[in-house]
Amino acid sequence: MPQIDIIDSIKIIINSGDHNPPHYHVIYNENEALIDIRTGNIIKGYLPPKI
Fold first, then answer.
1. Residue pLDDT tens, the chain, 51 long
2. Which residue range forms the structural domain that includes residue 38?
């Protein structure tokens, strides 16, 4: 997956050939979540409340 950015140890990754709905991956320490690009809602996974 191509890494888009790292912000304070939070990795943001987008894979253009990934499944629908359009989303990006956010990885923070041992937590990972898939975020819907259109709504900003977590599709799958978990992130701590304040990152």
1. 576 778 888 999 998 788 889 999 999 999 999 999 999 999 999 999 875
2. 3-45
Evaluate if pTM is beyond 0.85.
no
Does residue 2 have a cis peptide bond before it, meaning omega lies within 30 degrees of 0?
no
Is residue 51 included in any domain, yes or no? no
How many domains in the chain? 1
The answer to whether residue 16 is domain-embedded is yes
Q: Say whether the peptide bond before residue 21 is cis (omega within 30 degrees of 0).
A: yes
Residue 24 lies in a domain: yes
Query: How far apart (Å, rounded) are the C-alpha atoms in residues 11 and 43?
Result: 17
